[in-house]
Amino acid sequence: MNTKPNQNILSEYAYNKIKLLIFNNILKSGEKIIQEKMAQHLGISKTPIIQALSILQNERLIEYYPRKGFFVRELLYKEFIDILDIRRILEQLAIKKIIENLNEKTRNELTGFLEGFELFNKTKNKEKYYELDRKFHSYLIEASGNSYLIDINNTFNILLLCYTKGFVTEISASMDDHRRIILAILEKDLKKALKFMKDHTEHKKKSHIINGYKNRTKKPEQSGL
Q: How far is 17 from 52, CA to CA, in rounded Å?
């Protein structure tokens, strides 16, 4: 009996689940992924877990150390900066396409993001604010309608890496940036929108969280999963 199709489905299932755990920062950078516990957590055998981890390793989200195992990859300071630069380029391209094709649906979506940011900023709800932040930046890429731009982001996990440990800044530091970016897009002011996105990137580069990684030493911790 050929079980390969089922095995492939389970591997894809494990891949998507583990990737989501990293995206949601449940699996934190530097943490060890214990295969047995992950298999138990997902209700499957170790084999698809190992296959999924190998794929994630190829995507540079996971690192493998001989005799130690798989760990969520920790980024070096230069990598943080390089990824932010790539993200800025992608999002500026996305903004250009959004402004060129701005319609009522997109206007409503962007207005909804702005209202959400203002609400969660006012109520100091960090969890909801950061969740909306992730959705907003993902939306910009998707709303561009550029399939190649979307594929580049998905293939190299640009936005996902931007929400691992080190990229999240305080609400107050990003609220004004988001407001300016959204309003500039709604006003179809490309020059301002591109400038504000560049400013947003530079503000992240200067954050104390990212700069704290300049002299960081990797200290992998054992995860509960």
A: 9
Token code pair at residue 222: 């054992």
Domains 4-73 and 77-211 share a fold: no
Task: Tell me the pLDDT tens digit for each residue of 24-51.
Answer: 778 988 899 999 999 999 999 999 999 9
Q: Under 8 Å CB-to-CB from 9, ≥6 apart: which residues?
A: none
157: tokens are 């996990």
pLDDT confidence of residue 130? 85
Q: What is the sign, positive or negative, of the torsion defined by CA atoms of 28, 33, 37, 38?
A: positive
Q: Model's pTM, two decimal places?
A: 0.79
What CA–CA distances, in Å, run from 68 to 7, 9, 28, 105?
26, 27, 17, 50
Decide which of 1.20.120.530, 3.90.1150.180, 1.25.40.70, 1.10.10.10 is the CATH code for 77-211. 1.20.120.530
Q: For the domain covering 4-73, report its CATH number.
A: 1.10.10.10
Domain parsing of the chain, residue ranges: 4-73, 77-211
pLDDT value for 30: 87
Of the CA atoms within 13 Å of residue 9, those in its CB half-sphere come to: 4
